[in-house]
Write a structure and sequence with these properties.
The chain has five helices and eight strands. The protein is an alpha+beta fold. Strands 1, 2, 3, 4, 5, 6, 7 and 8 form an eight-stranded antiparallel β-sheet that branches. Strand 6 and strand 7 form a beta hairpin. The protein is globular, with a radius of gyration of 16 Å.
Length: 180
């Protein structure tokens, strides 16, 4: 029932483009495993072996800390409507910050966002499709804009101050590499 491929084919690309949310999983060599839901228009297919996603400021910065220690990342999307499917991208990730040269390449791929914290670029090692027959059906209503409103009200400088207070270490005390 499972299919493993080494790049994003046309069928996978269409599936990804139809999804409204995705999940990101990372882990350091010890400590907590992080699994985060992501929404909004924040995921891009760069080419068949590379994807990128815009990470917005939130209460934690676990993904950045984990990627510094071990660059493994799994991205999962599952069909909540239509034909059942669970798709996972297994790959190696790198965090890019607005001060980095590569931001000029990847930043313009996303709508400007006051809460933008990093862009994670993931080199695809494997793509796995599995049945997803037990995933429930849901109707998508709309994306929530509450985080964008919060960041816009706070302003970019206050968001950066928040990074200093809350986003410099992980729950396990690991440095996140957050650049301010």
């Amino acid at each position: 029932m499972s299919k493993l491929i080494t790049s994003i084919d046309e069928k996978t690309r269409k599936f990804i483009e139809a999804q409204q949310m995705f999940f990101v999983a990372t882990a350091a060599t010890s400590g907590k495993i992080n699994l985060s839901p992501k929404g909004t228009d924040s995921f891009r297919i760069i080419n068949p072996t590379r994807v990128a996603w815009l990470n917005l400021t939130g209460s934690g910065n676990e993904t950045a800390a984990h990627i510094l220690e071990t660059n493994r990342m799994t991205i999962m999307m599952c069909a909540f409507d239509g034909k059942p499917n669970i798709m996972r991208i297994y790959g190696s990730a790198k965090a890019i910050y607005e001060q980095d040269e590569e931001w000029a390449t990847y930043g313009p791929l996303f709508k400007k966002n006051t809460g933008a914290r990093q862009i994670f670029v993931v080199d695809v090692e494997y793509v796995q499709h599995s049945c997803g027959m037990a995933v429930p059906l849901y109707d998508f209503v709309e994306h929530r804009d509450l985080l964008d409103i919060y960041h816009d009200k706070k302003g970019r400088e206050k968001v950066k101050e928040y990074w200093q207070e809350k986003n410099m270490t992980s729950l396990d005390g690991l440095p996140t590499g957050q650049k301010v």
